[in-house]
Amino acid sequence: MAYEHIxxxxxxxxxxxxxxxxxxxxxxxxxxxxxxxxxxxxxAADEAIRVLVLTGAGAKSFVAGADITEINRLNPxxxxxxxxxxxxxxNRLGELPIPVIAAVNGFALGGGCEMALGCDFVYAAESAxxxxxxxxxxxxxxxxxxxxxxxxxxxxxxxxxxxxxxMLSAREALEMGLVNRVCAPEALMTECLAIARLIASKGRxxxxxxxxxxxxxxxxxxxxxLALETDAFALCxxxxxxxxxxxxxxxxxxxxxxxxxxx
Length: 263
Ligand code: DAK
Fold this sequence. Notes:
49% of the residues lie in helices and 16% in strands. The model has no long low-confidence stretch (mean pLDDT 96). It has a 6-stranded mixed sheet with strand order 1-2-3-5-7-10, with helices on both faces. The protein contains 11 helices and 10 strands. Helix 3 (76-95) runs parallel beside helix 4 (111-118) and helix 4 crosses helix 5.
């Protein structure tokens, strides 16, 4: 399917979605969010895709936020619909059965920072800048930032950033645990694709199980999370990948996971 505001590519089991409105620093308008939602369903349905990478077009920006031109015109009902559309799409990243990596190549502000927070983890270019500057616009984050940022970096740090709207450098974001790795800008995609390939070489069943259990366990109590882990562990053992992984270890050879979902 042809999209106007995003680019979708897939090679060797790794899909890349590029936010592609560079003139507006890849700001999220409703049309882009609709296209992204549609592309995510395509990725979810394609069993050949093992990892998804999200990035922004151009050297300057991942996503500079929700489109302020559109926000400026929203009435409260439209605002609610817009917030739901953005939230549902960002939530979907966590629900996808495959890992999602944010390759943050520049500004990740407002909705862009929330998009990165919705991914499983973040790699960033040295030039990247993170922040939730909504306070400067007289609004608050609307795509999950008030909840996800404090879960990721702690409540005091999140409050400070949300109350001030201050931008963080990639290095500060790394120190705070918002970013996993900082790369030279020209190496960002190479490093993201390398980690994506490494992840893609693992067993599909165990990857799905690990993501689902971490995700679902996050907001519950420890006992519930551990019970989810036990069930998922048992399910993994029924997979061909688990048979292959354990047999390969015993035979002292590298495992070759086929990723079949049948047991
Ligand atoms: N929306 C629309 N256009 C944007 C944009 C944005 N978020 N960010 C940048 N642009 C546009 C600029 O207007 C400019 O367009 P032209 O003037 O060339 O036509 C072009 O991109 C280049 O930007 P600049 O000329 O400003 O570039 P600079 O390098 O000087 O500055 C900047 C880069 C990223 C520091 C600056 O552009 C900036 O501060 N941008 C806004 C960042 C921001 O405030 N982001 C947060 C947006 S608010 C909700 C749902 C969602 C949300 C809230 C509530 N509900 C419905 C409840 C989420 C809100 C947000 O994300």
